[in-house]
Amino acid sequence: MAAEALGWWGVPLAVGAGAIRVSTPFLFVSLGEVVTETSGRINLGLEGTLVMGAMSGYAISFYTGSPWLGVLAAGIVGSLLGALHAGICSLPKVNDIAVGIALLLFGTGLAFFLGTPFVAPQAPNLPSIPLGFWSDVPQIQAALKVNVLFFIGVAAAPLLAWALRNTGVGLMIRMVGDNAEAARAMGYSPLTVRLWATCFGGFMAGVGGSFLSLYYPGSWSEGLSSGQGIIAVALVIFARWRPMYCLWASLLFGGAGALGPALQSVGISQGYYLFNAAPYVLTLVIMIIACSPDRTLAGAPGELSITK
Amino acid sequence: MVKITPTRRSVLLGGAAAAGTALIGGRGAEAASMTVGFIYVGSRDDFGYNQSHAEGAAAVRKMPGLTVVEQERVPETVACANAMAGMVHLDGATLLFPTSYGYFNPYMLKAAKQNPSVNYMHCGGLWAKGDPLNAHSYFGYIDEAVYVSGIVAGHMTKSKKLGFVAAKPIPQVLRNINAFLLGAQSVDPSITMQVIFTGDWFMPVREAEVTNSLADQGADVITCHVDSPKVVIQTAEKRGLYTCGYHTDQAPLAPKGYLTGAEWNWTYLYPKWITALQAGGSMPNYIRGGFKESFIKSSPYGAMVPAAARTQADAARAGFTAGNFAIFKGPLKDNKGNTVIAAGTVLDEHDPVLESMSYLVAGVSGSAS
């Protein structure tokens, strides 16, 4: 049971392990939102979707005994919330940002209300794959216990990038997002495409939420998300609407989140509030470096309300 | 502060108080059907702080003639003033337990001034002279139970390194951190401890990360002072570490690693206090207690705890109960090498100096500022 202290090696290990452990919800939410935003709509309500996904996934896992059914249920609940967002936004003169904020509050409130009976019980968690079997160091073994959802997310990023670039559906989504008039002329309905794109975004966000309650930290409570859904939406802009960049951004964010505790554990205990804020400082710094007056927000879908 | 439209009830109560009716004793006749309100900052089922109070409320509910109203997830903002006002004016509560630290000042003190006939019992607050007489503050010396947990941890650790997941460096938390290590060092003075602060009372993801960091640095017994120890205990269990609980019994969360824990004993105290009030007695404004006064208890030992550890832990508990044992006594140095308690000085648990503790004792790695 006793493990040798790792000392300073613990910091890169913690950051690496944290990147794997913490990044999955960011990854799923941001990949889903990439598709939604590529279709020309922004769904800020994904924080609410994430929390609803966490709650419903946990509840279904508790009732059925199968965490995978919980993941599926979380995805379905998420896509229903996405459909609600898309449905309201289909009405004339509706602002998608305002609807998103309303759904954010609605989703979290509903999850807290319906989730009260599930705070105490313990639901079966998702299994992990022990990839650290080759190492004798217990810390590495623990760090390399990786959840399947992480691999699905990692695989989804290039898949989505490819699909958006090379398939008919991807082209349709991009066209609707870049120029709704042109899409309409081609015979596509922008509202229908956006409905499906927002449903997909909601599905992914729901699955991301179920990772929180069913794997890490692995139980349902109200403080579970603490803004991860909002951060993930911001990550999409940070990642310039590119799925592969979402993957790197999510890993970076997860790793940076582990930096604060890891530094305290090796004795850098002054200013831990600052280190705990590392992910946000990092985002700001990269945004400032990446932004230039000449090529602001390159890659933004033309129909997106925040860039239009 | 919210304006409450005066209801008939509040006008009548206010008038009665103005007429000089005795605040507590005068209600003897109506005491039989008393309504008690409980307000929690988090969820009632959090396996932690809020659950400990909710279990106390459940014990009160079983008493004859008593109605209990509860509200959970009330933030430490004007929301708690609204919750208290609602319980007094709509539910007719005459005794309130606003249980979270931040409710005390200004919300509860203001409410107590406005409703002199209602008794307010606050957990963790510091009632001072000049505060309303119907406001009360109570807290327990739970560091005694943490010290007992530390003894068990000291027997169980193989790496001689303990881990502590703490929320914020405030005196109550620092006192528990120090007590845990001092308990362990009473078994083996070479034991050290790593403390990591999360920065807030309830941050599930960061608490899990912190627990993993402590495990990576070789800590093999973990305890915590956060509002809901659930995530810490579960994460440590997954890493195969021993744990000591806090606030309530978390043994069901960690059947393999749960050694013991420091628990509140509100299920005993709340009914006792209310019985005293109903009998016409009055309540002190400043209430404190430890093992001796049954404010706290230890979780039952896990099966893996050996007899030697149990014997030493039981002896310490007996010392606390008898009132002849002190945790903080000189000579005591902090982790920067300064002497914080001079040789020959023994600080009794009741000593108010301890309620402003600002240091970590020698052997703790971490910073109190």
Strand order of the largest sheet of chain B: 12-10-9-8-6-7-17
Highest CATH level, the class of chain A: Mainly Alpha
As a whole number of angstroms, the C-alpha radius of gyration of chain A is 20 Å
The appropriate CATH architecture of the largest domain in chain B is 3-Layer(aba) Sandwich
Q: What is the SS-derived class of chain B?
A: alpha/beta
Low-confidence stretches of chain B: 1-31
- CATH topology type of the largest domain in chain B: Rossmann fold
InterPro entries (chain A): ABC_transp_permease
Membrane topology (chain A): Multi-pass membrane protein
GO molecular function, one term (chain A): transmembrane transporter activity
Keywords (chain A): Cell membrane, Membrane, Transmembrane, Transmembrane helix
Could you please describe the fold and organization of this structure?
The complex is a heterodimer of chains A (308) and B (369). Chain A has 308 residues and is mostly helical. Chain A has one domain (25-290): Orthogonal Bundle (ABC transporter involved in vitamin B12 uptake, BtuC). Chain A is built from 13 helices and 2 strands. Chain A has helices spanning 10-38, 46-64, 67-90, 96-115, 138-143, 148-166, 168-178, 180-185, 190-214, 228-238, 243-265, 272-276, 278-290; strands at residues 128-130, 145-147. In chain A, strands 1-2 form a two-stranded antiparallel ribbon. The N and C termini of chain A lie far apart (58 Å). The two termini of chain B are 32 Å apart. Chain B is of the alpha/beta class. Chain B has 10 helices and 17 strands. The relative contact order of chain B is 0.14. Helix content of chain B is 34%, strand content 20%. Chain B folds into 2 domains: 33-140, Response regulator (Rossmann fold), CATH 3.40.50.2300; 143-263 and 295-365, 3-Layer(aba) Sandwich (Rossmann fold). At the A-B interface, helix 1, helix 5, helix 11 and helix 12 of A face strand 7, helix 7 and helix 8 of B.
